[in-house]
């Protein structure tokens, strides 16, 4: 299917899922960083999922019914602005290239929406996501109501369009999986590049630079989230993003980084020794986290519910914490009392897609939902040991996470991020080879 046909088919599916009415889906605004400088523009994921249109100041209006109609409101062509900021499709160009039924200048949205909403049963909207848009939606409805005396009725209900779209986005098509596979390959290569570049005395931000270099050189538009490069004790700060410390001989470094490619995220964590060789205690904990991940991955298959991989990883970790003297008592007691929590305090994964923490319910009617083919998620157990009374000192300040991206298949799951090594021997070999090369250079 051509790109426009893919987006059109999604709009048709959404229209069919709606109980009549009109969906209004704006893209994200441009955001100022500081004076005369903006953050790099990123479209809204829902809007892009339905249109493929990447310009700001655009709104999709989708009218459900027997023959659904897609209307795009976007910026007009403007030679002056295009000289400064670049190409704009304009309504006519966008209609042709992206396959909308109609397209109008975005300046006409406010005037046209009350007409489009007249006599429609529902307004589908991302209610509550943005107070300015909420106020605008109330304004459209009030203006339809004002026409009541001429026999026009206003939508009786506002529905959250995200309820329908989240469920659609949760199941990835082969086309989406192909993009995610390419994103995963780029990110995997970036992690290998960081492993090769690591050395005692180097800086965390130098590894971050290696990651960014690899992302961009393969055409990924941006990191999917702020990269974490955390040497030594910094790895025990789960959302560490300062990335400005020196990497120390004998420490591990935890790198959590993934690129966004064509609107899809990847999300990989690898943890490796700065000097290329794990110490005994580092290896003990690392092998434990790796075993927990293998167990979790085994349980990512159709029919298992969402939390089964997490519970499986937790059991392995808790038993390991007991064996290594981090926790005391029986496995059942450690799990029951959550005595593992000082060392493992997050969940083992999340949905992954256009957003790094992607949309989709984890429970249905109060129960963990079953995994099904086409769902994409991360599997990312970890272990973080802060100094403390009774905590064996050889493990102090070690933070480890191993994170891969997977897609649920008909029978099991496929790991998308497998090119980034994670076995101790493979990491050490890669880092040794790169040092040899440096020496011989
Ligand atoms: N990098 C974000 C996460 O792992 O959830
Ligand atoms: Mn993650
Ligand atoms: Mn991550």
Task: Describe the protein in words.
- The strands form seven sheets. A six-stranded mixed sheet has the order 6-5-4-1-7-8, with helices on both faces.
- The protein folds into two domains: 3-166, 3-Layer(aba) Sandwich (Creatine Amidinohydrolase, Chain A, domain 1), CATH 3.40.350.10; 171-440, Creatinase/methionine aminopeptidase superfamily (Creatine Amidinohydrolase), CATH 3.90.230.10.
- Strand 2 and strand 3 form a beta hairpin.
- It has helices at 3-17, 45-51, 79-85, 90-98, 109-117, 131-146, 161-170, 174-197, 204-217, 280-298, 308-323, 331-336, 424-440, and strands spanning 22-26, 32-34, 37-38, 59-63, 69-74, 102-105, 122-125, 157-160, 222-223, 228-231, 252-257, 259-261, 264-265, 268-273, 363-364, 367-368, 376-379, 382-385, 398-401, 404-408, 413-415.
- It is built from 13 helices and 21 strands.
- Helix 5 (109-117) packs across helix 6, helix 8 runs antiparallel to helix 9 and helix 8 (174-197) crosses helix 13.
- Helices cover 38% and strands 18% of the residues.
- The mean pLDDT is 97.
- The chain is an alpha+beta fold and 441 residues long.
- The structure holds glycine (GLY) and manganese (II) ion (2 copies).
- The site of one manganese (II) ion has 4 residues, from loops.
- Residues 267, 350, 378, 380, 403 line the site of one manganese (II) ion (MN).
């Amino acid at each position: 299917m051509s790109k426009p046909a893919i987006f059109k088919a999604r709009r048709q599916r959404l229209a069919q899922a709606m109980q009549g009415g009109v969906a209004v889906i704006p893209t994200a605004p441009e955001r100022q960083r500081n004076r005369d400088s903006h953050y790099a523009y990123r479209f809204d994921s829902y809007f892009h999922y339905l249109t493929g249109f990447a310009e700001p100041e655009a709104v999709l209006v989708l009218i459900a019914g027997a023959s659904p109609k897609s209307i795009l409101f976007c910026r007009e062509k403007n030679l002056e602005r295009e000289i400064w900021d670049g190409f704009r499709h304009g309504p006519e160009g966008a209609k042709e290239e992206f396959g909308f039924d109609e397209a109008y200048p975005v300046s006409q949205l406010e005037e046209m929406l009350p007409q489009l909403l007249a006599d429609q049963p529902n307004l589908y909207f991302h209610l509550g996501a943005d107070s300015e848009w909420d106020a605008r939606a109330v304004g459209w409805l009030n203006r339809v109501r004002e026409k009541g005396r001429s026999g026009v009725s206003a939508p009786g209900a506002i529905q959250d369009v995200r309820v329908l779209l989240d469920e659609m986005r949760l199941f990835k098509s082969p086309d989406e999986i192909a993009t995610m596979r390419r994103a995963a390959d780029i990110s995997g290569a970036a992690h290998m590049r960081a492993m090769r570049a690591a050395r005692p005395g180097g800086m965390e931000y130098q590894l971050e630079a290696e990651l960014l270099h690899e992302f961009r050189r393969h055409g990924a538009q941006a990191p999917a989230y702020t990269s974490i490069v955390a040497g030594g004790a910094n790895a025990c700060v789960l959302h560490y993003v300062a990335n400005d410390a020196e990497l120390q001989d004998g420490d591990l470094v935890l790198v959590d980084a993934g690129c966004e490619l064509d609107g899809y995220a990847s999300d990989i964590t690898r943890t490796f020794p700065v000097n290329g060789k794990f110490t005994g205690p580092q290896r003990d904990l690392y092998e434990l986290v790796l075993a927990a991940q293998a167990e979790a991955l085994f349980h990512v298959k159709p029919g298992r519910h969402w939390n089964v991989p997490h519970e499986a990883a937790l059991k392995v970790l808790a038993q390991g914490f007991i064996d290594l003297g981090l926790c005391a008592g029986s496995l059942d007691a450690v799990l029951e009392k959550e005595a593992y929590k000082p060392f493992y305090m997050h969940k083992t994964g999340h949905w992954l897609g256009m957003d790094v923490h992607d949309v989709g319910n984890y429970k249905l009617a109060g129960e963990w939902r079953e995994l099904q083919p086409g769902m994409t998620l991360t599997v990312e157990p970890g272990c973080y040991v802060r100094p403390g009374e009774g905590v064996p000192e050889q493990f102090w300040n070690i933070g480890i996470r191993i994170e891969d991206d997977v897609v649920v298949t008909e029978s099991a799951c496929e790991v998308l991020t497998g090119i980034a090594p994670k076995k101790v021997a493979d990491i050490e070999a890669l880092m040794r080879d790169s040092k040899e090369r440096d020496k011989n250079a």
